[in-house]
Design a protein that fits this description.
It comes from Magallana gigas (Pacific oyster). Belongs to the eukaryotic initiation factor 4G family. GO terms for molecular function: mRNA binding; translation initiation factor activity. This is Eukaryotic translation initiation factor 4 gamma 3. There is one protein chain. This protein is mostly helical. The protein folds into 5 domains: 48 residues, no CATH class; 75 residues, no CATH class; 117 residues; 184 residues, Serine Threonine Protein Phosphatase 5, Tetratricopeptide repeat (Alpha Horseshoe), CATH 1.25.40.180; 161 residues, Serine Threonine Protein Phosphatase 5, Tetratricopeptide repeat, CATH 1.25.40. Helices cover 64% and strands 2% of the residues. The protein is built from 35 helices and 4 strands. The strands form 2 sheets. Strands 1-2 form a two-stranded antiparallel ribbon. A hairpin with a 6-residue loop joins strand 3 and strand 4. It is elongated, with a radius of gyration of 42 Å. The termini are far apart.
Length: 737
């Protein structure tokens, strides 16, 4: 043993080949510990080497490493799958949030998603169908139409109902057969099959109802023709089963009034309330209407009860008449043979007793207790409520009615001061709208001019103290008071009393100048200057005489001191092309203020309100100034339309023909820019919300068949189908209420 072992190297002869630095530091023993050495021969001697794994080895990676083709395809497929899965996740998120209130925003998000392949488009369509509880052969590189896939899916689901019905029949037959031929121990299995069949029937029924309602809504949006709907109805009627007949009822209740039938031509209105979803605003309006109805009903009941009490007290104070006298006085007839005679007696007796009856009423009727007036705090609270609702709904008639219901004449000046204070530091639109409301209240004698001035002075007297905190305080007051200067219904002399508290500190001129500028923004310098001169007002009434000339130039109110004998119509006629070019320059290139545009129109256009060509030119320039971008990236700036609202309202003047011509001009603008998605709908919404175009104007444009105005009309109608559907739903809600 010793001889054999003598050839083996000793531990001293072992050399570890690993890290040279480690060897130098005497760490070879530590590094070799726990590793099985590999023996090699060096210089005739066997040596042991050991590989260390205690340190990480960093390999160099190429930026574009080579991969086999199958792995490349697999990587691309995985990335595409991840993108598609993320897309479906986002689509599900949008569908989960879908409500009438958020509809437009979510539709925009959905349209901006990266749906670039036919597979993704089909997947999105399937997700939509899953939400309502209810295969293309295109070549590579071809565009796929979402509408075509959607309608194809509708058709497949509709035709699948027949196959599912056959399947249900077969399952019923299987259950019936097992009932006669199965053994006793198979009874539980038969019950299980029956329960599964019931669950499947419920699912299929819900899917059929959802699909048929979806088809009806597609017909509302003009995506399906009447021929397709008729075909669906005939197929459902031929089936004669309960589910198909119920689907017929669902479909007719959804689209019955839009079908070309005799009932539809007679303006058939479906029974029951519409089951379409409503926005939060619509729900709130409906609740308010119901509350108002209930209050009116209670008032009527109280009035009837009060009338009965008065009649009872009157009867007690007078002689109790006999049966024949009661019949004569009330006009009722108990016997048919005495009808003519009693009617004559009734008329004669009523003539004879009328003065006496009035005297009895005067003497016996108790004095009416005067209604308790509201306190200042109650008026302030109600003012805020009225203004919040008015500024939200923009319903000035309802706001006037609410103010009339306050019935507290001795504190109505508090309503004015509270309204001015409440909106003073809010938006320009809020101040303008509040000023219009106050003007209408004065115009309709709900508020007197003296009450308006009294409430205004309560706030204006502190304007100078507020100037440090609110630098634009005079401009804000001008926007609130400017609407009073428009149609002459309120004499301009009211400025004398309203600015009285500011004369002492020479601030009255600042207030008056801002009021005139705000009015000029709505009516133009020419008209406001004319009203100023007719009122016999002078700047000396508001400020020190020495500063007047400089003040007029600095505040740009030269229109108040112009010659009153200037001609009211232009002396030189300008062609319509030149007018169009000038409007384009003022509105788009220079972006001039409404005051400047008013002045130019009044000086250069002959009868602008009566000129339909001018209306079209003005509408064209305003709409073009509100559209930014080009092609599919074109967008609308609604604030531009809002800022030009006074300009359009003045010359449209709520006239049907002018509104129709304005919409024709808008149609031509959209056709010129090739119908970018969403632009026309946004313009329609803004024009309607700002009361520039009335509901009748939009309906007139929709029904118009003028052959000269059909260019681009068909595409435009498709883009605003939802707008007119919303209008009709609003009309139905009003008629139901």
């Amino acid at each position: 043993m010793e001889q054999e072992n003598s050839n083996a190297p000793s531990n001293r002869d072992m050399h570890v080949v690993d890290d040279p630095t480690a060897t130098q530091h005497g760490q070879s023993k530590k590094n070799s510990r726990g590793h099985k050495p590999k023996r090699i021969k060096l210089n005739g001697k066997r040596k042991a080497t050991s590989c260390s794994i205690s340190q990480d080895v960093i390999l160099h990676k190429a930026e574009t490493p080579w991969k086999p083709k199958r792995k490349q395809d697999q990587t691309e497929t995985e990335e595409d799958t991840k993108v598609t899965a993320e897309l479906y996740k986002r689509v599900r998120s949008v569908l989960n949030k879908l409500t009438p209130q958020k509809f437009q925003t979510l539709v925009k998000q959905l349209s901006e998603m990266d749906i670039t392949t036919e597979e993704r488009l089909k997947g999105v369509t399937d997700l939509i169908f899953e939400r309502i509880k209810v295969a293309s052969t295109s070549k590579q590189g071809e565009y796929v139409n979402f509408r075509a896939i959607l309608l194809m899916r509708c058709q497949k689901v509709f035709e699948k109902d027949k196959d599912s019905e056959k399947e249900m029949d077969e399952r019923r037959k299987v259950i019936e057969q097992t009932q006669f031929f199965c053994r006793f121990e198979d009874t539980g299995k038969r019950e299980e099959l029956r329960k599964e069949l019931e669950i499947s029937e419920i699912k299929e029924k819900n899917r059929s109802f959802g699909n048929i309602r979806f088809i009806g809504e597609l017909f509302h949006l003009k995506m399906l023709t009447e021929n397709i709907i008729h075909d669906c109805l005939f197929k459902l009627l031929r089936a004669k089963d309960e589910v198909s007949l119920e689907c017929v009822c669902w479909l007719l209740s959804t689209i019955g009034k839009d079908l070309d039938t005799d009932e539809a031509r007679c303006k058939w209105i479906p029974r029951g309330n519409s089951k379409t979803p409503k926005t939060l605003d619509q729900v709130q309006k409906k609740v308010k209407k119901e509350i108002q109805k209930r209050q009116i009903f209670l008032k009527q009941l109280k009035a009837q009860h009060k009338t009965k009490q008065e009649r009872g007290s009157e009867a007690k104070g007078s002689r109790s008449p006999s049966g024949s006298e009661m019949c004569a006085s009330d006009g009722w007839d108990v016997g048919g043979s005495q009808t003519t005679q009693r009617q004559g007696q009734s008329r004669e007796s009523s003539r004879g007793r009328e003065p006496h009856r009035v005297e009895i009423e005067k003497s016996s009727k108790p004095a009416q207790p005067t209604a308790k007036e509201l306190t200042d705090k109650e008026i302030e609270k109600k003012t805020k409520t009225i203004l919040d609702e008015y500024l939200h709904l923009q319903d000035i008639k309802k706001a006037i009615f609410c103010v009339e219901e306050l019935k507290s004449p001795s504190v109505m000046h508090t309503f004015v001061s509270s309204a001015v204070n409440y909106v003073l530091e809010r938006s320009k639109i809020a101040r303008n709208q509040t000023g219009l409301l106050l003007h209408e209240l004065v115009k309709k004698n709900v508020l007197s001019v003296s009450v308006y001035i009294q409430g205004l002075i309560e706030v204006v007297r502190y304007a100078e103290d507020m100037e440090n905190e609110i630098p634009n305080i005079w401009q804000y007051f001008g926007e609130l008071m400017g609407p009073m200067v428009q149609d002459g219904s309120v004499p301009l002399n009211f400025l004398l009393k309203a600015a009285e508290p500011l004369k002492e500190n020479n601030k009255a001129g600042l207030l008056v100048a801002e009021v005139l500028h705000a009015a000029s923004h709505r009516e133009g310098h020419k008209k406001v200057g004319s009203l100023w001169r007719l009122s016999s007002l002078k700047w000396e009434d508001f400020m020190v005489a020495g500063d007047i000339k400089k003040f007029i130039v600095d505040k740009k109110v030269e229109f108040t001191v112009g010659d009153n004998n200037q001609p009211s119509t232009p002396t030189v006629s300008i062609c319509m092309e030149a007018i169009q070019d000038k409007l384009h320059q003022l509105l788009i290139k220079e972006k001039a203020d409404n005051e400047v545009i008013f002045d130019w129109i009044e000086e250069n256009v002959d009868d602008p309100i009566d000129s339909l060509k001018f209306i079209r030119a003005l509408m064209t320039s305003v709409c073009e100034s509100a559209i930014t971008g080009s092609g599919s990236s074109a967008r609308v700036l609604p604030e531009v339309i809002k800022n030009r609202g006074d300009l359009l309202k003045k010359y449209l003047d709520n006239r049907a023909e002018s509104e129709l011509q304005a919409l024709y001009a808008l149609q031509a603008v959209i056709h010129k820019v090739e119908h970018p998605q969403g632009v026309l709908r946004t313009l329609f919404d803004t024009l309607y919300d700002e009361d520039i175009i009335s509901e009748d104007g939009f309906n007139q444009w929709e029904k118009s068949k003028d052959p000269n105005e059909q260019e681009g009309k068909r595409i435009a109608m498709k883009q605003v189908v939802q707008f007119f559907s919303w209008l009709r739903e609003a009309e139905d809600d009003v008629s139901d209420s």
